[in-house]
Specification:
Number of helices: 3
Keywords: Bacterial flagellum, Cell projection, Cilium, Flagellum
GO cellular component, one term: bacterial-type flagellum basal body
Family: Belongs to the flagella basal body rod proteins family.
Largest sheet: 7 strands, antiparallel
Number of domains: 2
Number of strands: 20
Radius of gyration: 28 Å
Oligomer: single chain
Protein name: Flagellar hook-basal body protein
Main location: other
Helix content: 10-25%
Length: about 280
Amino acid sequence: MLKGFYTAASGMLTQQRRTEMLTNNMANANTPGYKADQSSVRSFPEMLLNRMEDETIPNGNGKKMPSFAQVGSLHTGVYIQETNPLFKQGDIKQTDLKTDLALVHGEMPIDEETGVAGALFFTVQNGNGDVRYTRNGNFTLDSQGYLTTSGGYYVLDGNNERIQLDNDQFTVSDNGVILQDAAQVAQIGIAYSNDPAGQLVKEGDGLFSANAELTNAYDEDDVFFTIKQGYIENSNVDAAQTMTEMLSVYRSFEANQKVLQAYDQSLNKTVNEVGKIG
């Protein structure tokens, strides 16, 4: 088996997975609060090949002992090491709907070890009581007056309680306080993560789960944000850049495919021509 098969095949698989990731980003370019995925590609460890054979000992007894002859190094190609969301804030779009909320943050604290900026999220809950986090502020009121996401998750307040309103005639201040009939009803729950890539796992539908409960953003002195009513946050997918990356990935896949075809033709000649017995 020719060693280049491993490199070309792993390259094709890697580019195929990158294509799937970029295609999913493009499909969600208009999804409110969507965070684009980005991948990191890494090469497999290089291996050293040795050939084991028997070597006769020159002592007249004809005894043999194993010996090793170096064949050369083997590059086994590349793979996608991990895929992480890009938590950069998307553009803010005005909708004039009272149930639409956009989370606009200022400059976030940066972790000194990782160099990653923190991120803010709305806190939501499903019917089983499982807490999730999202940037999609396209909310609505259900039949019982609970403020929910478009997927039916309950929006929580700062005390992790569900928010119930009489109707959609309410106002939300910049610090998340909900007022209805001049009375304070609740305060929108905002969670803060100082390491979103390490703490959060993407689940789909704009939701993230955390390996531990995130802190309350209102308790963080160095975290600044505002909540804008009648606005939503757009996806942070850069359509032009994503299309450029897709073309680059396609060319890389095609190049690896041609290498694989060349090796296949070489093997075909070896089996059917070189190895032919006259």
